[in-house]
Amino acid sequence: MTKSELIAYLAAENPHLRQPDVELIVATIFDEITAALARGDRVELRGFGAFSAKRRDPRTGRNPRTGAAVPVAGKAVPYFKPGKELRERVNGGALQAPARAARTKVEA
């Protein structure tokens, strides 16, 4: 689902809200999550999950074309950890992988 699809869905589910208001609400939520991560804060949405910024240390990488060593600066990357309720809903709604059959030795 894209941001525009989310806005259209929310507008359809809430006919008492105008489309521009729904756009503003969605944009504000995303902007606040982004701003919190930029400050180094953690954002937790109960039942959904938690957003945080994980720190990656500086390292030496390799140029794939030449194989030369390239210094890579440390950085923060966004990270999402799904909550228990989200994991259960996703796993409960998806087809479960079939259990592996026990391997038996075939005698000739």
UniProtKB/TrEMBL annotation:
Gene: ihfB
Record key words, sorted: DNA recombination, DNA-binding, Transcription, Transcription regulation, Translation regulation
Classification via InterPro entries: Hist_DNA-bd, Histone-like_DNA-bd_CS, IHF-like_DNA-bd_dom_sf, IHF_beta
The keyword Transferase belongs to this UniProt entry's keyword annotation: no
Protein name, UniProt field: Integration host factor subunit beta
Organism name: Roseicella aquatilis
Protein family (similarity comment): Belongs to the bacterial histone-like protein family.
NCBIfam families linked to this entry: hip, PRK00199.1
GO molecular function, one term: DNA binding
Quaternary assembly: Heterodimer of an alpha and a beta chain.
A GO cellular-component term linked to this record: cytosol
